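Tutorial sheet, problem 5. The three components below are modelled jointly, 627 residues in total.
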Amino acid sequence: MRNYSAFLKKEVLEYTKTYKLLIMLMVFAVFGITNPLMAKLLPEILRKLMTDGNIMTLPEATAYDAWTQFFKNATQMGLIVMVILFSGVLSSELSKGTLINMLTKGLSRTAVILSKYTCMVLVWTISIALCFALTYGYTVYLFPAGETANLIFSTFCLWLFGVFLLVVLLLSATLTKSNYGCLLITGAAAVVCMLVNIIPAAHRYNPISLATDNLGLISNSIAVSSLYCTILISCLLSLLFVFLSVLIFRKKQL
Amino acid sequence: MDLAMLKEYLPFLIPLVIAQLALGITALVHVLRYPHYRFGNKVMWAIIVMLVQFIGPAAYFAFGRGNE
Amino acid sequence: MGILEVNQLFKRFGNHEVLSGFDMDVPEHSIFGFVGQNGAGKTTTMKIVLGLLKPDSGRVTVCGEKVTYGETKTNRNIGFLPDVPEFYGYMRPMEYLKLCGEITGLTKAKTKSKSEELLSLVGLKDEKKKISGFSRGMKQRLGIAQALLNEPKLLICDEPTSALDPIGRKEILDILLAVKGKTTVVFSTHILSDVERVCDRIAVLHKGKLALHGTLSEIKERHRHNGLVLEFGSAEEASLFENTEELKQPSISLSRDGNTVTALLTNHDMGGHFLLGVLSQKRIVPLKFAVMEPTLESLFMEVVQ
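Model answer (structure tokens):
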């Protein structure tokens, strides 16, 4: 426990001093601002382009469009940036040898894994909260009439998927030596999840549904209750993977 | 874009510009203070972080920055 | 009982057997030189002692406690200095030692006083730079400071001097000598002059086994050859002596280099007096007549060959 808090402090300091926290926050802040802006501007730009006669009736942009942008940008770009940024979570320390000093000082390997995971989840939580707050504020400002269904629940699902993705990343990091290997395994895991989702029956149990059903949730075409099973499975899998990561790292030859 | 439109989007533009400037300047200071890069040279990175919006500084901190 | 005991250690990487039944015993309060060629398995042994690598078989005890692979409690008695120590570059020396103190479980006050003491010992007291701006020698010295922070009973240094210039090397060796009374030091190296300068005991690792073991003087005594060096006033006298009929026998081998003749006597019954007899018979008085002292280098070459 003492090990855990000491190393967690070091992790937080590291993300601050190596500008990783800054990059995450900036990327998510920019997404947060541009989401409603894009929703507003896109139809207007299209309208400008189609001035010569062929008038199409474009629907007026709504708050729903702004949140569509939010769930698209955050799921695709945001998660990719996060995975790339965190891919060196173990390999950079192992290849440089900075962790050896700590381990020979009696730092427990379990504490290494747990504090690293905690810190990643912390950074992800702050980033998505910032992005959500900015999108929310500007959406209210631009589309005062809009009312969106299941917004908090849908964002929670996205957040939970991020938490799940981070544990997959952590497990890959304990399995490989380089950050490219880590990226590769994480990417492969995401692709496998997507492929499995082709089978409709698997949809309910697949964690990736947490990141693909968001639009359905806010448009009320997917029932909230249909995701309960997915949430439960994602939580269980996350716990299992944390446990596995600790187990593997404790037996890893350094 | 006319002036009225610009005014309407000012609440968006100001934070975006601030964010870009903050990132760009942090990265530029880092580029100038630590002249070791995984690849490329000082001039190249200085131009990239100042001129390529958002992606430039992010790329620098993620890939270009030398090991400390 | 030694502070570090290694029994029948085996370790192979793929087809390459690095350690094949290695034994070692380090008594308390010694500076123990652990010598071997590059790739002899010194670092592997140390990593096994630290629980970072898993031995194929064998047993290691530190202060009487068995080392287990992975999470090992024995590390609380050990300070380790890796060959190229790396630190978090964004920290300053004091910050780094504070982190180390928190991890080993020292109190804040204790960490602070100990850090200041150690930083002045290694000559980094007034260093306010970030570690990323440190030279190799400075990192090595900070490495010793962090290794000594928890007052370990055993300090393990992996080639602490190999990457340094002569001044840096001297500084490190002086620090090792300075801590000798408080802790047992094991350090690996392939620089023999360093060993002769500071070590009181050595072990030579060769082909995965212990090739030499003991105190420096013991080893020299044990490996003293029945060899004599004779220096003559002129090359003629030297060659006259070399070509003497009495000396042409299988148990004597002579080699001449200018005025100097080296005689190796393999027959132990036949000592220097035999050569003295020959000299007086031939009426030659050598300038010098000396018993050959083995150097660490010659011993090392001998066991490694």
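Marking note: Chain C touches chain B at residues 89-90, 130, 132 (CB under 8 Å). Full credit if you identified this.
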